[in-house]
Design goal:
single chain; 195 residues; alpha/beta; TIM Barrel; two-stranded antiparallel sheet; 24% helix; globular; binds iron/sulfur cluster; Aldolase_TIM; EC 1.97.1.-; 4Fe-4S; S-adenosyl-L-methionine; metal-binding
Amino acid sequence: MNAPVGTLRIHHIEPISRANGPGLRTVIWFQGCTLGCPGCFNPQTHPFEGGEVWTVEGLLQAILPFADRSEGLTLSGGEPLQQGEGLVDFLSQVRRRTPWSVILFTGYTWEEVQTLPWGQAVLDHVDVVIAGRYQAKRRLARGLLGSANKTVHFLTSRYSMADLERVPDSEVMIDSSGMVHISGIDPLHWMRLHL
Ligand code: SF4
């Protein structure tokens, strides 16, 4: 079930990450996706019944304390654009209240994004979009591209392709409870090297 109006259904928040965009970034994985890319790395983010429902203001209050340590926000999923109305409200507040850059991962193609009801309104608040379904047969894992069919769109001058190509392809984080999180565009890379 979709989150009620004025709220967002979120899978996970990572306060500080190095492998989800240039520099240190705060990352939000949205909960819920119907696009069904074969071989998706995050199937646990697909059900709209999972995750946690946040009000827009509650989510802002949870992440704003990280703004003095991270240079930007990365939105991933799940499919952020399947919660477009709440996302527009959230991003307009982020732009108004922080100096953060915004990177959006979406499974929709660039052309599909233009046709979504909230597509352009979301893009108005985003610096970089990485668009297109994940295709396991065209796996790439470079420059934040999970597969070769995906396209990158720089909507402001804040970043370049060289910035994306410097991003580490994986990282491992251990939280205060001892839980291990592995993320990045090629999360299995770290496991291949170390396990
Ligand atoms: S759009 Fe993303 S979350 Fe959805 S199925 Fe594709 S890779 Fe998985």
